[in-house]
Write a structure and sequence with these properties.
The protein is an alpha+beta fold. The protein contains seven helices and 20 strands.
């Protein structure tokens, strides 16, 4: 008899069937996803787009964000020993029979570490999407990856600038922010000594920026010798809301209770045309500086506005040029060059690298002053 007319009711026999592995489908099913697409709907070869993306990524890594380059220096070290003295030596009057004292650099160093993390994102398309989409729609994903890398890099660096919290890296080296009033004493400069409670994170006490806030931040940087050399420049980084207030500062005019500006705000060479009844003495700030638009100047600082800076915050930094070793923040990269910057990693299917591709970035986390309006 067949099983249809006499069903199996022996539970032992049924149990034995459950122990058998399914069979008959070892070859799998041929699905729509097995069809490989090599052109977009408008006839552009996907490998051509992949080559374009690779070329753009190379150019992107060579020309990082202007703000990033002015605030940082590249390093592959896990930590650096930073001299804690900027003192200079002096000659002594020679004697007829005596021996002169030896000159040697200061031996007081602080070990400052850099963290390192990997970040990634994936681009995934089905074959139907690639078949029916245009080349511009595929390129848009690459553009999003570039924008995400810029946001990651710039945002992380600015977070380090405004965040006093200390961390540690994989070697246990302490990673510092700016001077935050802890036990670390800044090195003496030109005979001026500093106390242990030295603070570069300032609170204004007002909800509106005034000239006193800006002048105090400038002084906190220059008293250490930063931004005073001919190859350096002081920049005031702030949100457009604060930059608009700074643009109203005028020397000798009160802009807050008991606060009188010491300098005039002067629009940069790139500012819209304006009428000034007074003669401008001195050099006007340029339209741009290393790719950053300059709004104007107040005393020795050039004002740079950016929406990356949170409203009611600003920072005064000394920059020594793009990727200068004297800049404030260390940007740690991998020791192997092929793992530096933004990388585009091909997908799993040979000959079709754009499918399931990965975008990967590896970077870190530095003097400057950061201020918050309260």
């Amino acid at each position: 008899m067949s099983a249809l007319t006499t069903p199996r009711i022996n539970p032992d026999l049924l149990q034995s069937l459950l122990h058998l592995s399914p069979y008959g489908a070892e070859g799998g099913y041929a699905t729509e996803g097995d069809v490989l697409v090599n052109t977009t709907a408008d006839g552009v070869d996907l490998n051509v787009i992949w080559d374009e993306v690779a070329a753009v990524v190379r150019a992107w890594n060579a020309e990082r964000s202007a703000l990033t380059r002015l605030l940082t220096f590249n390093t592959t070290n896990t930590a650096d020993a930073i001299p804690q003295s900027r003192s200079s030596d002096s000659f002594e009057e020679a004697s007829e029979f005596g021996e002169p004292e030896s000159i040697r650099p200061p031996a007081d160093y602080a070990l400052m570490g850099y963290t390192f993390k990997d970040y990634d994102k994936a681009s995934r398309w089905t074959w139907k999407y690639l078949r029916d989409s245009t080349a511009e729609q595929v390129r848009a994903v690459a553009n999003y990856a570039l924008e995400a890398d810029n946001k990651l890099t710039t945002g992380t660096i600015l977070q380090r600038l405004f965040d006093p919290a200390q961390t540690s890296n994989e070697w246990g080296h302490t990673v510092y922010g700016l001077y935050n009033g802890d036990s670390m004493v800044p090195p003496a400069y030109l005979g001026k000594d500093f106390t242990t409670a030295h603070q570069h994170y300032l609170v204004s006490g007002s909800d509106t920026i005034d000239s006193g806030d800006l002048e105090t931040a400038i002084r906190q940087v220059t008293e250490h010798g930063y931004g005073t050399e001919p190859n350096s420049k002081l920049l005031a980084l702030m949100n457009p809301a604060q930059a608009e207030v700074v643009a109203s500062f005028k020397a000798g005019v009160q802009n807050a209770p008991d606060i009188i500006a010491k300098h005039d705000y002067i629009p940069s060479a790139g500012a819209p045309a304006y009428f000034s009844p007074d003669e401008i003495v001195g050099q006007v700030a340029p339209e741009s500086y290393n790719g950053l638009k300059v709004q104007g100047s107040y005393g020795p600082v050039w004002v740079i506005q950016s929406d990356f800076i949170a409203e009611d915050y600003f920072a005064v930094v000394a920059t020594y040029g793009a990727n200068s070793p004297d800049n404030a923040i260390g940007f740690r990269e991998h020791v192997q060059t092929q793992y530096r910057g933004l990388r585009n990693i091909p997908g799993r299917v040979p000959g079709y690298p754009i499918q399931d591709a990965f975008s990967s970035a590896a970077l870190v986390w530095v003097c400057a002053v950061a201020a918050r309006l309260a």
